[in-house]
Amino acid sequence: MNGTLVLLRHGESTFNAAAVFTGLLDADLTEGGARQVEVAAGLMAGAGLSVDLLVVSPMVRAVRTASLLFDALGHQPAETIATWRLVERDYGCLTHVSKVEARERYGEEAFFTWRRTVHGRPPAASADQRATWVDPPPVPESGPLVAGDGESLADVIARVLPVWTDVLAPRLRAGQTVLVASHGNTLRALVTALLSLPDAEAEQLNIPAGHPLVFDVDARGAVAAGRYLDEDAAAVAEAAVAAEGGT
After folding, report:
1. Which of helix, strand or coil describes residue 117?
2. Model pTM?
3. Which of the residues 88, 151, 203, 238 is marked catalytic?
4. Known catalytic membership, residue 88
5. Distance (Å, rounded) from C-alpha 21 to C-alpha 94?
6. What is the pLDDT along the chain (247 residues), one digit of tens a residue?
């Protein structure tokens, strides 16, 4: 019996709406983000998905997404695990900077390298930059991560892999349905690792907000290619993310 892995990027946050790099800053959902979660719940209900285990980032936008989702589904998961390993990628000096300003300040090449490549890591934020991060504040439950130090996608892959090996894979091999409610880059890192994507494909991978992405996992832990529950809507949303500079 196959297990089912559902990946859900949180609904649109206030910083997403403003096209600002959020990283390890906490931000709530917009009204539009809350509606995205309601749509996701409808898709999951229509697919007959009943979640055994929720694994969630402790950041506000992910926790609220999970709460709204299960309220709309009308049931709660049998078990919930929150882990710092699923918090969003730390964007270093890009944190709290708009995407337009980042391109102008650092140039297109650096913007692409830091934003999209597997090994590109934004430089650390300055003390003056960090002092402005009051509203929203850095997430308090970020483990050993320090907001503003900067991470590459490879760094994120390294910290999410234990979630796969220690938490997700054993449940999925046992045939359970597991939902991961997290962030664009954390999920991008997880998919890159699970499907062994080459760097060029990882650079082009975008995961849109509020669209459930489903993978079948067999008893050996092998992961089949994923599918969105609404492929057409997800493709439109994915193209919009790519046009903005990527997840």
Report:
1. coil
2. 0.96
3. 88
4. yes
5. 6
6. 799 999 999 999 999 999 999 999 999 999 999 999 999 999 999 999 999 999 999 999 999 999 999 999 998 999 999 999 999 999 999 999 999 999 999 999 999 999 999 999 999 999 999 999 988 889 989 999 999 999 999 999 999 999 999 999 999 999 999 999 999 999 999 999 999 999 999 999 999 999 999 999 998 989 988 999 999 999 999 988 888 766 7
Q: At what angle do helices 108-116 and 99-106 cross, to 10 degrees?
A: 120
| 127's tokens | 């003390």
Is the Cβ–Cβ distance between 3 and 172 less than 8 Å? yes
Q: Does the annotation mark 183 as catalytic?
A: no
One-letter amino acid of 1:
M
- Angle between helical axes of 31-46 and 60-73 (0-180°, round to 10): 50
54: β partners: 80, 179
* Coil vs helix vs strand at 53: strand
Q: Are 61 and 182 in contact (CB under 8 A)?
A: no
Say how far residue 174 (Cα) sits from the centre of its chain: 25
What is the distance, to the nearest Å, from the Cα of residue 93 to the centroid of all Cα atoms in its chain? 20
CB 67 within 8 A of CB 10: no
Burial class for 181, CB neighbours closer than 10 Å (0-12, 13-18, 19+):
buried
- CA-to-CA distance for 190 and 212, rounded, in angstroms? 15
Beta bridge partners of 81: 55
Q: How many CA atoms lie within 13 A of 139 on its CB side?
A: 28
Other beta carbons less than 10 A from residue 36's beta carbon: 24
